[in-house]
Specification:
Strand content of chain A: 15-25%
Helix content of chain A: 25-40%
Shape of chain A: elongated
Oligomer: homodimer
Radius of gyration of chain A: 24 Å
Number of domains of chain A: 3
Distance between the termini of chain A: 48 Å
Number of helices of chain A: 14
Largest interface: A-B, 56 and 56 residues
CATH superfamily of the largest domain in chain A: Dihydrodipicolinate Reductase, domain 2
Largest sheet of chain A: 10 strands, mixed
Number of strands of chain A: 18
CATH class of the largest domain in chain A: Alpha Beta
CATH architecture of the largest domain in chain A: 2-Layer Sandwich
């Protein structure tokens, strides 16, 4: 069979890694595909840069959109990144030119996934994105094909390696967020501007994509409640351990009576849960299916090698002629997303207050919770320091988020409560 | 598109579960496949048995081979089991009749996988077997497609839930193998004749299949070194904990300079390893790829729901027209297996001896090891009991299996050594 002709846009870490993989594994890939995977065109910013790959036989384009339109390729691989701009223009152009698109771009798919899928399917080409979520872990394939006989009831995971690295570092070193972030930046595990990672946005992008595949709904990034890890303090980590929990930034999607709940926020999870021991930059996803039960997928969530492995897995499927609707069902059959709002979330909570240690304080706090029908499970005040500030930690039984918020507002107005209350949701996994 | 017509042979737990899944998820499956999955024929031993499924519209065959030949079906699902007999005859008959075959039968594939794959591919139909390994975990798809861009360097896992359940029970209860086995039998986690599970044969069947997919070699069950868990004692479990290990029955395949090493045996693994905390009937597989690094797949390894989920995942691929060579490359291109023999295995070892506590014993043992170039890493003799039997535990640095065996033979001949030495391989994961 003839070669699969590939054009690659973006030659950063992942792009260069993909070209290296295609070069180093050429024989293996040919055996597995029954044909060769051949890069015929590339586009990147700097032509002169040494990437350790011979680009002599490859057509160079300064303009990626021009490449998407003109290159003699069946597939365009988009590794530029960003939800709009060149990445979006080049994907649309490639699809219009009846070329398949393989992308690692989670921001693009989170914002425009449904529209791009509809476009691709209307034109009769494939849009694939294994590399957009959890790096080298074939989680998109697992959900879309391996678990396709199941109705997924809940899906959750650690989808951002940087945040997990920082939380792991905070636990190991007992140092505060900013110190550990700086160290992560020095080691290259965090960007100079870390907000996409530590504010949960990157994980929310990925969750919106997985939710669409798992639940058959249109991609609904706007429906993801997103909260990052900046407010997690070493004190919370210490209390978590005392209570038998670990703090993880989880991305969670589940079906409720209202619709689909999607949320990214720090969670307290039992230290015996499989996901509690996933440390460092590792990613992990747990999918709960009505027939298969709970299955776990874990591995390196980023990096040149793992991401290239996922990009090329999509290319192999294309080379073999294996086609599937973008999100598992035809994009026109995806259900419009009905978000289950965060105020309606129900679960147990961990609350940490700084209070002036004097008689009656706990009674006032307990009254605020009672008036909102929030039932306390445990209360912890270590040591005594009359008339000085001490931490008080509470856990609650299952309560509604809206009620919890009202109770916390009332508590924060108490004279004896001298800092903004800290709240971390407890997740029963 | 027209319905996918399916014939099912064998209506035990998995067969009945598969029919229930196809009934309960009919709408979901139709949406995901673009066509319906319809059971048109079944065959089982007892027609009168109530399986909780309406078989009114389904053609009943007393003879599964006749069904494979005559039924008006594109796919025959084989859920009878056993490496030969009816299962093999019906698969061959179905392939000869140009029908696809989906099977959960690991014994059949371990013994006849290459021949059946060659037959299927020569005829132009598909033989698929996601359900044969690790139940509801889509590990075959992950290896054959998700990781297809990688050269797999090592693969290992917990592939037998019964053995893992027993080892977990032995650790938790400190009771000996036979007691825990009996309890597992009462609870339905072990068969009346448990030898396939506890002697490692079932895990070896599954390993031989995964090895073929991962390394592109012909299925080589005969090349799997197989050792079960009957000889693991509570004392070994105790020492393992003291040394920072857990004992797991692992199935391991890796490429060596000689060929492919395949082995199933109890291992000591560091208690911090991901696989060390996989307890009970859960299965887990770790695949190490040259680009993607180490990825982990975990979930329920057996049971009606998980296994049915895997069977139907294969049916969905067929319904969608997604085809792939049986073991990832055409069966005629599989490399004949060159087994790396167990005598050439190299690794560290744990040795437990019962010795009479008298001067010079340790020196004799040490000399036997030294003469075979086996270097001791640690030695542990708790307490003293002059002239009585005491356990002595040794761990070694990396040594060759053949040398280790020679040293153990010599040690077992020492007067002061009063029981057969126990050896458990340490696995560096």
């Amino acid at each position: 069979m003839s070669d699969l002709r590939i054009a690659v846009a973006g030659l950063g870490t992942v792009g260069a890694g993909t070209l290296k993989l295609l070069r180093d594994q050429a024989d293996l890939l040919a055996a597995r595909c029954g044909r060769s995977l051949r890069v015929v065109a590339v586009s990147a910013r700097d032509r002169a840069k040494d990437r350790g790959i011979d680009l002599g036989n490859v057509h160079w384009y300064d303009d990626p959109v021009a490449m998407a339109r003109d290159a003699d390729a069946e597939v365009v691989v988009e590794l530029i990144g960003g939800s709009d701009g060149a990445a979006k223009a080049l994907c649309e152009t490639a699809l219009d030119a009846r070329r398949h698109v393989v992308t690692a771009n989670k921001a693009l798919l989170a914002h425009h996934g449904t529209a791009l899928a509809k476009k691709a399917e209307a034109i009769g080409v494939t849009l694939s994105f294994e590399a957009a979520v959890a790096g080298g872990v074939p989680i998109v394939k697992a959900l879309r094909e391996g678990l396709a006989a199941n109705r997924i009831t809940r899906l959750y995971g650690i989808l951002n390696g940087t945040s997990n690295y920082i939380l792991t570092g905070m636990r190991d070193s007992r140092r505060p967020f900013l110190k550990v972030l700086q160290q992560a930046q020095k080691l290259g595990y965090a960007e100079a501007d870390p907000s996409f990672d530590v504010d949960g946005i990157d994980a929310a992008h990925k969750l919106a994509i997985l939710t669409s595949v798992a639940f058959g709904i249109e991609v609904d990034f706007a429906g993801v409640y997103t909260e990052g890890i900046r407010h997690v303090s070493p004190l919370d980590i210490e209390y978590a351990e005392e209570l038998g929990y670990r703090i993880k930034l989880l991305a969670i999607a589940r079906r409720t009576e209202i619709g689909i709940e999607q949320r990214v926020h720090p969670c307290m999870v039992r230290d015996s849960a499989a996901i509690a021991v996933v440390d460092g930059v590792t990613n992990a996803v747990v999918a709960e299916g009505d027939f298969t039960g709970s299955t776990v997928y874990e591995g390196p969530g980023a990096g040149a090698g793992p991401t290239a492995s996922a990009v090329v897995a999509d290319l192999i499927d294309l080379a073999r002629g294996r086609r599937i609707p973008t999100f598992g069902v035809p994009a026109t059959a995806l259900t419009p997303a009905v978000a289950s709002p965060m105020e309606r979330h129900r679960g147990p909570y961990y609350i940490r207050l700084m209070v002036v240690d004097r008689p009656g304080v706990i009674a006032d706090i307990a009254a605020a919770l009672r008036d909102e029908n929030v039932s306390m499970e445990s209360m912890l005040q270590r040591g005594r320091a009359p008339n000085e500030a001490v931490p008080v930690v509470l856990t609650t039984h299952i309560a509604e988020e809206a009620a919890m918020n009202r109770a916390l507002q009332r508590i924060s107005r108490l004279d004896a409560v001298i800092e903004r209350p800290r709240m971390i949701r407890i997740e029963d996994l």
